[in-house]
Amino acid sequence: MAAYDCDVLVIGAGIIGLSTAYAITRAAPRTRVVVLEKEPGPARHQTGRNSGVIHSGIYYPPGSLKARYALQGSAEMVKFCAEYDIPHEVTGKLIVATDRSELPRLHGLIQRGREHGLPVRELGPAQIAEYEPEVCGLAAIHVGTTGVCDFGAVARQYAALATDAGARIVYGAEVTTIGRRSGRVAVRTASGTVHRARALVNCAGLHCDRIARLAGDAPGMRIVPFRGEYFTLAPERAGLVRGLVYPVPDPAFPFLGVHLTRGIDGAVHIGPNAVPALAREGYDWRTIRPADLAGTLAYPGSWRIARRHWRYGAGELHRSLSRHAFTDAVRRLLPATQEEDLLPAPAGVRAQAVLPDGTLVDDFLFAESPGMVHVLNAPSPAATASLPIGREVARRVLGVVGG
Question: How high is the pLDDT of residue 361?
């Protein structure tokens, strides 16, 4: 293998890949970094299609990477947005119990928020109305540190800072082959270009398990794509929601349920509904990629998820196929909602890591092998936590290249 032409290759120009490139250039300025991205620009998938919420960290168990990085990352994200004039707002949010069976879980979240040192306040129905007059609930928590921003703009700013510091981002560069020898990694793209580096970082998101296998590593998991389907409140009805309103999450499933989000643009996004995607980038039911679908169906973990969560999944599918059913779910929080108030909005796809036994990986997951660092699970709150995650990945890869 010929001598390398850069120190670190990063695959993927989503928010984590770009944060990693930015962190490397800050920690070791003389390190030569190249980012390869198959799309014509940054943040085209998970980063550019999420709800834009800066998460507080209240949902995540103490000691988990999600808790540590979200708590740290949320404060850093607000500061970063302010420093670079990226639209953002710290709005706070409500987590609302609409059924008595949810109250124990709500109280558990209150305790967790206090353990994390978050500004949480318990609310009764009258106090809920002070924040959100149209929202109905038995009890709620107000979390003061939650906010909203434009994560696509954040990713573009990471890219600008990294390139200003000497990193190079190559768009339209789909990775097709990875070769490795001691102290060397070579990556060939679809155009035939070969990039040689001392180390590789896999931040390929929806394709991270494939990239790991392409590199000769066994990731021990598989990405099973779940589509998050959104609606937007009709503009004349956007006044029904002032800020962010979430249901009490079900701890048995990693999705937060249908929630209400007034974005930085003032539009109110409602969702997501979570259903299996028929392609890794399957943003609607019409998008089917047979190879992707066959890979999901052949994976034992997929069938074990289906058996374990079939009741939950059936409800999600019903809401996906019936706007009436989706509206009923929204009315639990926002009774004034009418079916005609909901306008279709762009969907996203979550790259969910699943173990062979059907366990949904709940925390961030990193793996290392000689010359490689793989980011194998980085769903929400990864955008919120992108600065500390980027530093962690940079620390790992710089240990490989001696930066």
Answer: 94
Residues 252, 299: contact at Cβ < 8 Å? no
Across the chain, what does the average pLDDT equal?
94
Mean per-residue pLDDT for 377-391? 97
Interacting residues of 282 by C-beta distance below 8 A, sequence separation 6+? 225, 227, 288, 289, 292, 349
Alpha-carbon span 351 to 365, nearest angstrom: 12
Is 50 exceeded by the pLDDT of residue 1? no
Quote the CA–CA distance of 98 and 248 in Å, as a whole number: 8
Contact 86, 153 (CB under 8 A): yes
| Dihedral over alpha carbons 184, 188, 192, 193 (to 10 degrees) | -50
- Mean pLDDT confidence for 312-337: 92
- Asked whether the beta carbons of 75 and 116 are under 8 A apart, the reply is no
CA distance linking residue 307 with residue 91, whole number of Å: 39
